[in-house]
Design brief:
The protein has eight helices and 15 strands. It has about 280 residues and is α+β, with helices and mostly antiparallel strands. The strands form two sheets. Strands 7, 8, 9, 10, 11, 12, 13, 14 and 15 form a nine-stranded mixed β-sheet that branches. A six-stranded antiparallel β-sheet has the order 2-1-6-5-3-4.
């Protein structure tokens, strides 16, 4: 059984309990992070903790721990669980009040929860064939740059994909690409890798940053700019990126093939660069 952390205690996940008056339960009032761990080394832990801090500050939710304390807690959860590669989920809510009230409690006592699971990446067959996606209107709120636990819109959009046998929904707002329901999106046109710039309409992904760094390091032509929906639909390649999906080709969109209908050469090269980076940098700390 996995070991989690809850408000100062390390205990079996099945024994963890949170008040029904906790504002994460009543209002989705909280922030979270998902931190990939390779060979028991949390990847870019400082960046994840900084992103958590940015979300908490925007939510006006006091950060209950220093960066050093967060790092120690994450490493302790990793040490107490069995997997060499893990996915650590960290959540901070505004805590419980003595009644349900939209306004913030006069005294805030944040609830801090952390759990871990095995980090599962796409299997070889999926990497070879790519996955299907559907398009959807991006009807989420206007602060998608904040990693909050209020993810109902993302859940609905992801379910929209699942019900059509797809792995992801690609989101468009006012005729432009934003991101996926649970991923960042890259496309390739005429050998150039394209992705939207960070804004309040998309989550600033850590894997997104890695892919851009790898493109720059290896001299892959790339641009960070607004991308029209028509450019996505006529792209030679489309990829989704995230901590768990890494770099995964999308080979059909709305039932139509993307490019040749197989993972393209630029995406295959980026995946190879990512795996090399994972094995030489992520696993070595």
């Amino acid at each position: 059984m996995s070991i989690c952390y809850l408000d100062g205690q390390y205990l079996p996940l099945a024994e963890a309990r949170v008040s029904p008056l906790d504002r994460s339960f009543l209002f989705g009032d909280g922030a979270y992070e998902v931190i990939p761990v390779y060979s028991r080394r949390p990847f870019r832990l400082e960046e994840h903790i900084a992103r958590l801090g940015n979300t908490l500050a925007a939510l006006r939710l006091p950060d209950p721990h220093s960066a050093a304390q967060w790092a120690d807690m994450v490493r302790e959860v990793v040490a107490r669980n069995a997997w060499e590669d893990q996915s650590v989920y960290l959540q901070v809510s505004r805590g419980a009040d003595d009644k349900r009230n939209h306004a913030f409690p006069a005294v805030i006592r944040p609830t801090v929860f952390m759990m871990s699971d095995a980090l599962l990446t796409p299997p070889a067959a999926q990497l070879d064939s790519g996955v299907a996606a559907v398009s959807a209107a991006d009807f989420r709120w206007l602060r998608c740059d904040l990693k909050t636990v209020a993810l109902l819109a993302n859940c609905l959009l992801r379910q929209h994909a699942v019900e059509q046998g797809c792995a992801e929904s690609i989101l468009f707002r006012d005729g432009f690409l934003t991101e996926g329901a649970a991923s960042n999106i890259f496309i390739v046109r005429d050998g150039v890798m394209l992705t939207p710039p960070k804004s309040h309409l998309m989550l600033p992904g850590i894997t997104y940053d890695v892919v851009l760094e790898l493109a720059a390091r290896h001299g892959l032509p790339h641009e960070v700019r607004e991308i029209l929906e028509d450019e996505v639909r006529s792209a030679d390649e489309i990829w989704m990126t995230s901590s768990t999906k890494e770099v995964l080709a999308i080979t059909t969109l709305d039932g139509r093939p993307v490019g040749s209908g197989r993972p393209g050469p630029v995406g295959r090269q980026m995946h190879a660069w990512y795996q090399d980076f994972k094995n030489t940098v992520m696993r070595s700390g």
